[in-house]
Specification:
single chain, 203 residues, mainly alpha, 72% helix, elongated
Length: 203
């Protein structure tokens, strides 16, 4: 069973500074996923002790939190090691892929990491690629169905330009301020009579 230090050392051997990866060997994958499953099993055992046996001591809760943080650390680094599969499979399904399809691929990879059973004898990349291809095809088909049903996607460039509307409103407000100033001037520089004032106020 690996700890966080062993994992960091292995990740440094698999990834360089730009996250370019070397595919892990079968033995390395067994160590990685075996350790992840060990910590996840420990979390379930702690949860069972808390829920069924009522053990709510600080030691049990602290142990559960530590195992949870370690499991998250393993998932994060397994995602980093295998993140190249997402772009490769998304590009295979649709060369002009969108950011939504890439995001969906990342979620599929996370699900694959949590569901992979290393005891079945095949590598994680085989399992992940098959999951990515199957799920992305379904996602793209659903996208195409919705696009056909609801038409063009929302794009800012197709929205009407409101610049002149805003500018016109500002100009009208400015002119109304001038008129109010003239109406409120006691010296009556425009020489308005009562009828003129009534007409201007109505307008």
């Amino acid at each position: 069973i690996m700890n966080e230090g062993d994992l960091a050392e292995m990740v440094n051997g698999l990834l360089d500074d730009k996250d370019k990866r070397r595919s892990p060997t079968r033995e390395e994958e067994i160590s990685l996923f075996g350790s992840l499953h060990h910590y996840k099993q420990g979390i379930h055992e702690n949860a069972k002790r808390i829920l069924e046996a009522g053990e709510t001591t600080r030691e049990v809760v602290a142990e559960m939190v530590d195992r949870y943080k370690t499991a998250l650390y393993f998932v994060d680094n397994l995602f980093r090691i295998n993140s190249g599969l997402v772009k490769a499979m998304t590009k295979l399904i649709k060369p002009d892929y969108t950011s939504d399809q890439l995001s969906e691929g990342k979620l599929i990879l996370l699900r694959a990491i949590n569901c992979f059973d290393f005891n079945r004898g095949y590598k994680f990349s085989t399992y992940a690629c098959r999951s990515l291809v199957k799920s992305l095809k379904r996602f793209v088909a659903e996208e195409n169905r919705l696009r056909y049903r609801f038409g063009l996607e929302y794009k800012d460039c197709f929205e009407p330009d409101t610049f002149f509307d805003i500018r016109g409103a500002e100009e009208i407000s400015f002119q109304m301020g001038i008129v109010r100033k003239i109406l409120n001037d006691k010296n009556n520089p425009a020489k308005l009579d009562d009828i003129d004032r009534i007409v201007i106020n109505r307008r």
